[in-house]
Amino acid sequence: MESKRLWIWLQSAVGVGWTHSADLLQQFGDAAAVYAADESALRAAGLNGAALRNLKNKSLSKADKILKTVQKKGWQVLTPDDAAYPDGWAALPDLPLAVYVCGQLPDRAAFPTIAVVGTRKISEEGRRLTAALAAGLAAAGCTLVGDTIHGGDEVAMEAAVKVGGVGVILQPCGTDVDYPKKSDRLRTAVLTAGGAILSEFPPSTPVRRENYGLRNRLLATYADVVLVTEAGEKSGTLRLAGLAAASGREVLAVPGDRTQNAGCHKLIRDGAALVENCREILKVLVGRYPQLNSEKGMEAEKRSWAESPKSEPPKKERKPAKRPEPIRPYVVRQQPQPAPASGEVTWGPLPDYLSDRAKTVAERLTAEPRSIEQLTEDTALSMPQAMTALTELELCGVAQSYPGGRYSRKG
């Protein structure tokens, strides 16, 4: 328990989503070594400013208070030195140093973890499709990861629980915060079914706009596969898919009505694999995860279509090819778009609550849209870091996105 105590101290000192977490651990090894380091050692590691001041403070009172709350609630604390710590998180430059776990962590080695996501303004057809795919994947044995906010994510999690599947909820606030309140029943159902609720934010941390970008980097890298069932042309779901692709995750997209599902069509044009039913997904995954029950999954998908209101039977499946087409990695292909005229612009002050990384990216944004590649080169940030920062800036009204993965300054 002493190790957990020190990891909580370290996260409290540098803050959630600190961009130099991986560098710090590479130099010192673990939280205990950082705690034992004196000021000269910390300065030699390149630390200064607020991070240095906070790491010089060796008081464990705050960590003890958090740990006492965690123990009282019966939670776990997942840290980088745990065997269950996801490899995708370990590869992040701003990897989480302490994640609070309510419930039971799934066996990630035996079964794939899939994020089934969709737009918040999901259509009725998209709702039925998302429920059918989620039910099929969960019944086959896949772990579904997402959140319980209204829209495609909530529909997918409800469908997974209905068939007895395992779900993992990643919260943009403390694990014990009822957010959104109307989803309290669903969160309870996920825990009852053997799933878990995770958050890197300490207990009782409220929801803030900047928390979503930080949470999404964990969601995108916790999942082995991201399946987008419905997304508009400017849906935030596309940013999540971009984070997943930049981290080497497989991105799948379902085609549909071009007005409602323009985002999925864009993902497919950019290289995401086109899928239409569980069979196409499971036939690829079962080779890597032989314990998956494909027949049970396809039966659950069929039953979901039959039970959904105003549903129509799913379209007749095409005959499978002689050899299944492998899921292709999602590669963003830039498409030239007309840019607005540039000029001399005076920007307002940046919000105080922005992360340092977001402020760095904001300073490189101009009235003329710039590509993500240009921003990563100018800021020396990785693609996942830049995407997370841009998500935070969009939510705060500081950045504007354009087709082709370009961004400009606003406000």
Q: How would you describe this protein?
A:
The radius of gyration is 22 Å and the shape is globular. Helix 12 packs antiparallel against helix 18. It has a 9-stranded mixed beta sheet with strand order 1-2-6-5-4-3-7-8-9, with helices on both faces. A 3-stranded antiparallel beta sheet has the order 10-12-11. The chain is an alpha/beta fold. It starts with a helix and ends with a strand. About 3% of the residues have low confidence. The protein has 18 helices and 12 strands. The chain folds into 3 domains: 102 residues, no CATH class; 195 residues, Rossmann fold (3-Layer(aba) Sandwich), CATH 3.40.50; 54 residues, Arc Repressor Mutant, subunit A, CATH 1.10.10.10.
Query: Total domains, how many?
Result: 3
Q: Look at the structure and give the CATH class of the largest domain.
A: Alpha Beta
Note the gap between the termini: 47 Å
- The largest beta-sheet arranges its strands as 1-2-6-5-4-3-7-8-9
Helix content: 40-55%
CATH architecture of the largest domain: 3-Layer(aba) Sandwich
Structural class: alpha/beta
Shape: globular
Quaternary structure type: single chain
Low-confidence stretches: 329-342
Describe the secondary structure blueprint for this structure.
Layout: H1 2-14, H2 21-28, H3 31-36, H4 39-44, H5 49-56, H6 61-73, E1 76-78, H7 87-90, E2 99-103, E3 113-118, H8 124-140, E4 143-146, H9 152-162, E5 167-170, H10 184-192, E6 196-199, H11 209-222, E7 225-230, H12 236-246, E8 250-253, H13 262-269, E9 273-274, H14 278-285, H15 294-307, H16 356-364, E10 370-371, H17 372-379, H18 383-395, E11 399-402, E12 406-409
Parallel strand pairs: 3-4, 3-7, 4-5, 5-6, 7-8, 8-9
Antiparallel strand pairs: 1-2, 2-6, 10-12, 11-12
Helix pairs in contact: 1-6, 8-9, 8-15, 11-12, 11-18, 12-18, 14-15, 16-18
